[in-house]
């Protein structure tokens, strides 16, 4: 999927189902989301999950550190790129992002905002590696979107600790392109009203 097409698909619903449990796969398929971040599964089932979402025209990013039985090294990423064939991967590790990009996968760098040093290091890392998007966590500090946007032009997705519709809307008002949430009840929230 080309980068611009990915951003357009993300902007369709502006929310992403972060699927942490297999029991939520069906709910994510039926939900009004642009795509999914898969944080569940193992090497024996992950291709089937990816194919299922892709067949429904949803993008699929695998959080590679969360897939059971997958070694996150060059061979593991080659397996993902050549056999599983998701839209892309999510990782907290810049070396993984760099290797995935070489294999033609779209990438999302997950950055945890625990203090100003983590913010500075995360932005420097992203500006060096140039992932397709940054997922800032936790998503309940929407004003950080504006700060990070002054430091990089990489699109921002907010996720983590989001538990209400209002917490989903705030990051979008501050410039995020989408929000991700693992709460299935929020996958049906209409985010286009007033934004």
Descriptors:
single chain, 195 residues, eight-stranded parallel barrel, 8 strands
Average pLDDT reading: 94
Written as H for each helix and E for each strand, in order along the chain, the element string is HEHEHEHEHEHEHEHE
CATH architecture: Alpha-Beta Barrel
Number of domains: 1
Question: Which CATH top level class fits?
Answer: Alpha Beta
CATH topology: TIM Barrel
Main sheet strand line-up: 1-2-3-4-5-6-7-8
For CATH, the homologous superfamily is named as Aldolase class I
> Per the principal axes of the C-alpha atoms, what is the gross shape?
globular
Structural class: alpha/beta
Count helical runs.
8
Number of strands: 8
Helix content: 40-55%
Largest sheet: 8 strands, parallel, barrel
End-to-end Cα distance: 26 Å
Low-confidence stretches: none
Strand content: 15-25%
Oligomeric organization of the protein chains = single chain
Rg, alpha carbons: 15 Å
Architecture blueprint of SSEs:
Blueprint: H1 3-13, E1 15-19, H2 25-30, E2 35-38, H3 46-55, E3 59-63, H4 74-84, E4 88-91, H5 94-102, E5 106-112, H6 116-129, E6 133-137, H7 143-151, E7 156-159, H8 165-173, E8 178-181
Parallel strand pairs: 1-2, 1-8, 2-3, 3-4, 4-5, 5-6, 6-7, 7-8
Task: Explain how this protein is built.
This protein is an alpha/beta fold. It has a single domain (3-186), classed as TIM Barrel, CATH 3.20.20.70. The protein is 41% helix and 19% strand. It contains 8 helices and 8 strands; from the N terminus they run αβαβαβαβαβαβαβαβ. It has helices at 3-13, 25-30, 46-55, 74-84, 94-102, 116-129, 143-151, 165-173, and strands at 15-19, 35-38, 59-63, 88-91, 106-112, 133-137, 156-159, 178-181. It has an 8-stranded parallel beta barrel with strand order 1-2-3-4-5-6-7-8, surrounded by 6 helices. Strand 1, helix 2 (25-30) and strand 2 (35-38) form a beta-alpha-beta unit. The longest helix is centred in the middle third of the chain and has 14 residues, at 116-129. It is globular. The model has no long low-confidence stretch (mean pLDDT 94).
